[in-house]
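Need tokens for this chain, all 179 residues.
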Amino acid sequence: MSIKTEISSIQEWLPYQSICNNGIIKLKNSTYIKIIKVIPINFNLKSELEKQSILNSYKIFLKTCGFNIQILIQSKKEDLSKQVSKVKENQKKESEELKIISENYINYIKELNERNNSSSKNFYILIKKDVLINSVEKVVIDELNDNYLKIKECLSRCGNVVTDINQKKEVEKIIRSFF
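Here are the structure tokens for all 179 residues:
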């Protein structure tokens, strides 16, 4: 007696039906999602006056969003293997003194990374639009793009860099990065 194991693709498992060429995701329940990447400012480095201005702009952003959004923060532990391998590659060409310095440097960055638990963060805003039964896809996409422009305008006033994820490959890469 054999047990049959069914192997599903990730596309079958995830709730999305397709990714349009403009980067908008169509879910199986006919909901559409647009992904926006935000590169934030360092709030702690701002003066009190700048902080107050940023907070006011952020309040305007929240009031402007009369539509469904979700904010995602993705933390990834820093992978220093590429940097370490470059240093090791360069060590082969160096004198004995420089090899010792390079080895000390490798140990230092590894220790620093472990101690500080270094990580990088990606910030995303997802805009969601539920589709009514007789809605035209182009109208839904136009509305998502209008909402993106509202968000971009408000968050740019705060000093953030806001990027439209509008390429199918970029969206696929982001989706895969969460798994």
